[in-house]
Description:
There is one protein chain. The chain is an alpha/beta fold and about 120 residues long. The protein has five helices and five strands, in the order E-H-E-H-E-H-E-H-E-H. It has one domain (about 1-115): 3-Layer(aba) Sandwich (Rossmann fold), CATH 3.40.50.2300. Helix 2 (about 35-45) packs parallel to helix 3. The protein starts with a strand and ends in a 6-residue tail after the last helix. The relative contact order is 0.18. The model has no long low-confidence stretch (mean pLDDT about 95).
Amino acid sequence: MRALVVDDSKAMRVILSQLLRELRFEVVDACDGIDAIEKLKDAGTLDLALVDWNMPRMKGIDFVRHVRGQGLQPQMRIMMVTTETEMDYVQQALTAGADEYVMKPFTKDVILEKLGLLGITAG
Length: 123
Protein backbone atom coordinates (compact mmCIF):
# COMPACT_ATOMS: atom_id res chain seq x y z
CA MET A 1 0.00 0.00 0.00
CA ARG A 2 1.21 3.49 -0.83
CA ALA A 3 0.16 6.80 0.74
CA LEU A 4 0.67 10.53 0.32
CA VAL A 5 0.76 12.79 3.40
CA VAL A 6 0.13 16.47 2.68
CA ASP A 7 0.59 18.94 5.55
CA ASP A 8 2.54 22.17 5.99
CA SER A 9 3.57 21.10 9.50
CA LYS A 10 6.70 18.98 9.35
CA ALA A 11 5.82 17.53 12.77
CA MET A 12 2.39 16.43 11.54
CA ARG A 13 3.91 14.90 8.39
CA VAL A 14 6.33 12.93 10.57
CA ILE A 15 3.55 11.74 12.91
CA LEU A 16 1.23 10.66 10.11
CA SER A 17 4.04 9.11 8.05
CA GLN A 18 5.29 7.12 11.04
CA LEU A 19 1.78 5.87 11.80
CA LEU A 20 1.30 4.77 8.19
CA ARG A 21 4.74 3.13 8.03
CA GLU A 22 3.83 1.12 11.13
CA LEU A 23 0.89 -0.14 9.06
CA ARG A 24 3.36 -1.07 6.30
CA PHE A 25 2.54 1.78 3.95
CA GLU A 26 5.17 3.24 1.68
CA VAL A 27 4.84 7.00 2.28
CA VAL A 28 5.46 10.06 0.11
CA ASP A 29 5.02 13.45 1.78
CA ALA A 30 4.38 16.99 0.58
CA CYS A 31 4.32 20.38 2.33
CA ASP A 32 1.30 21.83 0.50
CA GLY A 33 -1.13 21.15 -2.34
CA ILE A 34 1.17 22.37 -5.10
CA ASP A 35 4.03 20.22 -3.82
CA ALA A 36 1.60 17.28 -3.60
CA ILE A 37 0.46 17.70 -7.21
CA GLU A 38 4.10 17.71 -8.32
CA LYS A 39 4.78 14.55 -6.30
CA LEU A 40 1.73 12.84 -7.82
CA LYS A 41 3.37 13.09 -11.24
CA ASP A 42 6.25 10.83 -10.19
CA ALA A 43 4.68 8.80 -7.39
CA GLY A 44 3.09 6.05 -9.38
CA THR A 45 -0.15 4.58 -8.07
CA LEU A 46 -1.18 5.72 -4.60
CA ASP A 47 -3.88 4.11 -2.46
CA LEU A 48 -4.42 6.89 0.08
CA ALA A 49 -3.84 10.60 0.68
CA LEU A 50 -4.04 12.24 4.11
CA VAL A 51 -4.52 15.96 3.47
CA ASP A 52 -4.52 18.99 5.78
CA TRP A 53 -6.96 21.82 5.00
CA ASN A 54 -4.98 24.94 5.92
CA MET A 55 -1.71 25.20 4.02
CA PRO A 56 0.10 27.97 2.16
CA ARG A 57 0.14 28.18 -1.65
CA MET A 58 -2.69 25.66 -2.11
CA LYS A 59 -5.16 24.62 0.56
CA GLY A 60 -6.09 21.00 1.01
CA ILE A 61 -9.63 21.52 -0.25
CA ASP A 62 -8.23 22.98 -3.49
CA PHE A 63 -5.89 20.00 -3.81
CA VAL A 64 -8.85 17.63 -3.47
CA ARG A 65 -10.85 19.56 -6.07
CA HIS A 66 -7.87 19.55 -8.47
CA VAL A 67 -7.14 15.84 -8.06
CA ARG A 68 -10.78 14.82 -8.47
CA GLY A 69 -11.47 17.36 -11.22
CA GLN A 70 -8.48 16.25 -13.29
CA GLY A 71 -9.11 12.56 -12.67
CA LEU A 72 -5.67 12.14 -11.10
CA GLN A 73 -5.21 8.91 -9.16
CA PRO A 74 -8.92 7.98 -9.41
CA GLN A 75 -8.41 4.94 -7.16
CA MET A 76 -6.79 7.02 -4.40
CA ARG A 77 -8.88 7.45 -1.28
CA ILE A 78 -8.60 10.93 0.25
CA MET A 79 -8.89 11.61 3.96
CA MET A 80 -8.89 15.20 5.18
CA VAL A 81 -6.99 15.47 8.49
CA THR A 82 -7.54 18.97 9.84
CA THR A 83 -8.30 21.29 12.74
CA GLU A 84 -11.43 22.53 10.96
CA THR A 85 -14.32 21.18 13.02
CA GLU A 86 -17.38 22.95 11.58
CA MET A 87 -19.84 20.77 9.69
CA ASP A 88 -19.66 23.17 6.73
CA TYR A 89 -16.01 22.18 6.24
CA VAL A 90 -16.86 18.48 6.42
CA GLN A 91 -19.59 18.96 3.82
CA GLN A 92 -17.29 20.97 1.53
CA ALA A 93 -14.59 18.30 1.73
CA LEU A 94 -16.96 15.44 0.97
CA THR A 95 -18.58 17.37 -1.87
CA ALA A 96 -15.13 18.13 -3.32
CA GLY A 97 -14.30 14.43 -3.39
CA ALA A 98 -12.75 13.57 -0.03
CA ASP A 99 -13.72 10.11 1.18
CA GLU A 100 -13.30 10.69 4.92
CA TYR A 101 -12.69 13.53 7.40
CA VAL A 102 -10.64 13.42 10.61
CA MET A 103 -10.43 16.30 13.07
CA LYS A 104 -7.16 17.08 14.84
CA PRO A 105 -6.15 16.14 17.42
CA PHE A 106 -6.70 12.49 16.55
CA THR A 107 -5.55 9.13 17.87
CA LYS A 108 -4.06 6.20 16.01
CA ASP A 109 -7.31 4.33 16.64
CA VAL A 110 -9.31 7.06 14.87
CA ILE A 111 -7.09 6.79 11.79
CA LEU A 112 -7.37 2.99 11.88
CA GLU A 113 -11.16 3.23 12.15
CA LYS A 114 -11.35 5.62 9.19
CA LEU A 115 -9.06 3.37 7.13
CA GLY A 116 -11.39 0.50 7.89
CA LEU A 117 -14.37 2.57 6.71
CA LEU A 118 -12.47 3.16 3.47
CA GLY A 119 -11.88 -0.56 3.08
CA ILE A 120 -8.13 -0.12 3.51
CA THR A 121 -6.37 -2.73 5.58
CA ALA A 122 -2.63 -2.71 6.01
CA GLY A 123 -0.11 -4.07 8.43
